[in-house]
Amino acid sequence: MKEIKIGLIGFGTIGAGVVKLLAKNSLLIEEKLGARIVLAKIADLDITTDRGVTVPQGVLTTNVEEVVSDPEISVVIELIGGYEPARSFVLKAVENGKHIVTANKALLAVHGAEIYAAAAKKGVEVLYEAAVGGGIPVLSAIKGNMAANNFVTVLGILNGTCNFILTKMTREGADFAEVLTKAQELGYAEADPTFDIEGIDTAHKLCILLSLCFGTRVDIKDIYTEGIRSISAIDINFARDFGYKIKLLAIGKRDGERIEARVHPTMIPVNYPLADVGGAFNAIRLTGDFVGPVMLYGRGAGMDPTASAVVGDVMDIARNLMVGVGRRTAPLGYLDERVKILSIKPVGEIVSKYYLRFSAVDKPGVLAGIAGVLGKYDISIESMVQSARQAGETVPIVIMTHEAREMDVRKALDEIDSFDIIMEKSHLIRIEDNLE
Questions:
Q1: Is 121 noted as a catalytic residue in this protein?
Q2: Of 212-221, 279-288, 327-336, where does mean pLDDT reach its minimum?
Q3: Per-residue pLDDT, 390
Q4: pLDDT tens-digit series, residues 104-152
Q5: What's the CATH superfamily of 139-299?
Q6: Sign of the CA dihedral with 286 first, then 289, 293, and 298 last
Q7: Which numeric CATH code is attached to 348-431?
Q8: Catalytic member of 168, 205, 253, 353
Q9: How far is CA 281 from CA 39, 188, 295, 300, in A?
Q10: CATH architecture group of domain 3-134+303-335
Q11: DSSP secondary structure, 86-98, as one string
C-alpha cells in the first residue's frame, strides 16, 4: 500500500490529539484513502513530557529542520501557534515543496497573504480547516458545496471561552470576574485570557471567514474589536427581560463594495438558533444568495475536534497526491488574481439598534434630559426601564433604541455622560434582531 509521509511541528494538546487519531483510526483512514499516512517526524522543544500517546522510536526531534527539509515528507502540519517562529517554519517548508496543514488562525490572519503567495509559487496546498471553529467543517463548506453563492452575511460565536463565560453568567446570574475564575479552574480559560476575552481570537477567525466569504484580504487592524469584560450581571438580566441573550458575536456583512467587520458583545433574540449555542460550543451562520441561511454548530476547540479537522485536511491533500493533482481550490476559494480589496465600513457608520444603560442620580427630569439628547441626535426610543425610585440614590436607566447610526449614538452618550447626574460612563450593547 502506498505510504504518504507527514511531519508535525508542535506536540502540545492538539499535536497529541493528531497522533492519537492517526493511531486509533489508522485502518479507517486506509479504507477511505487507499493509502497509509505515516507520521515520520514530530518536532518540539520538549520531547520528554508524557503526552499520553505512544510515539515510535526516532520520530521525536527537537530539530525542526528534520521536518521541513526531509525530502520524504510530503505534508507538514504546523501546530505551535502564534506568529513566529510559526511563519518562518511554514515558509521554509513551502520553499522545500511541502504541503501545509495548520490550525494557526493568528498566523493566517496576519501573514496569510505572504504564505499563500509562497505556496502558489511552489504549487503546494495550504489547508487550515481547524483554524476556525475547531471540528466544525465551515471553511470546506464555504469553499466547496456553497461555493456558487454570493455571501451576504457571516456571523459566528467563535470563542468557546467567552461563550462559556456568558452562558454561565446567564444561567447563574454571576458576575464576569467570578465566572472567569471558574473558567480558568476548569481549563476553559488560559491563565492569561486576554486574547479570548478581549475578542482578539474571535477577530483572527473573522478575518479568515471574511476573506473566504467575500474574496478579499482583510487587515486584522481594521476589524472593530470589543471584548466581554464590561458585561455585567445587570446587563444579562435586562437582556433577559427584553427577550435577548448576550453573545460575543463576529459579524461580517457585504455592503456593496464595502464590508462590515466587527467583533463585540451583541444582544440576539432568545428564539434565534444562535442564542441556544451554550457552553464552550461554537456556531457559524452563513447567508448565501441561493442557499439562504445555513448554521453550522459544534465543538469549536479541544484536542479531539481540532485533531479531526487537521487530519481531514491531511487526507484531502493525500487524495490529491494519490492522483497526481494539486491546488484544485485556491487557499481563499477565489482565483489568486481575483482576490480584491474591499474597504471596511467604519464602525461609526454602521446602523443598529442599541441597548443603553445609564447610572444616574434619581432626580426629577433625568429621563427627560436623557431623552432630549437622544432626540437631538435622531435616536428614537423603542422602550425604557427605570428601577424603583430611591430619592437621591443612583439607579440604572435602560433604553432600547430603534435603528440609529453609531456615530450619532456615541455623540449622544458623550453629551449625556457630561451631566452631573450621570455617575459612571454609559454602557452600550448593539442588537442584531433582523438577520437576513
A1: no
A2: 327-336
A3: 57
A4: 999 999 999 999 999 999 999 999 999 999 999 999 999 999 999 999 9
A5: Dihydrodipicolinate Reductase; domain 2 (3.30.360.10)
A6: negative
A7: 3.30.70.260
A8: 205
A9: 30, 11, 13, 6
A10: 3-Layer(aba) Sandwich (3.40)
A11: HHHHHHHHHHTT-
